[in-house]
Amino acid sequence: MINFTVIDRDGAGKLIEVPEGINLNLMEVLKASEYDILATCGGMALCATCQIEVIRGLENLKPAEDNELNMLDTLPNVSIDSRLACQLSVSEQLEGIIVKINSDLF
């Protein structure tokens, strides 16, 4: 199992547990866990409605690719810890991370 923590827009944290090898991205897991994620583009890194902030564990994630960086560059309130949940595959890289759903969007 892969375990990580999600902090919602109200500041409440919840441990999420997903099986390894489910072939989903973080955005899909967040939506399935009933978080209010729009994901307007369906995971193509074209809308940024799944933006999250990585509170802990950023160093464990694969670096963002150009299409993700380009989309993040268009947003007013991003930090070096911002990522698009649709671009993060559910794998051992997510084990133990803490992410916060961005409260400044939408």
From TrEMBL:
Taxonomic superkingdom: Bacteria
InterPro entries documented for this protein: 2Fe-2S_ferredoxin-like_sf, 2Fe-2S_ferredoxin-type, Adrenodoxin-like, Beta-grasp_dom_sf
Pfam family, one: Fer2
Residue intervals of the 2Fe-2S ferredoxin-type domain: 1-105
UniProt keyword terms in alphabetical order: 2Fe-2S, Iron, Iron-sulfur, Metal-binding
Listed PROSITE patterns: 2FE2S_FER_2 (PS51085)
Swiss-Prot/TrEMBL cofactor(s): [2Fe-2S] cluster
Family membership: Belongs to the adrenodoxin/putidaredoxin family.
PANTHER family: FERREDOXIN-2, MITOCHONDRIAL, FERREDOXIN/ADRENODOXIN
Name of the protein in question: 2Fe-2S iron-sulfur cluster-binding protein
Taxonomic source organism: Pedobacter alpinus
Phylogenetic classification of the source organism: Bacteria, Pseudomonadati, Bacteroidota, Sphingobacteriia, Sphingobacteriales
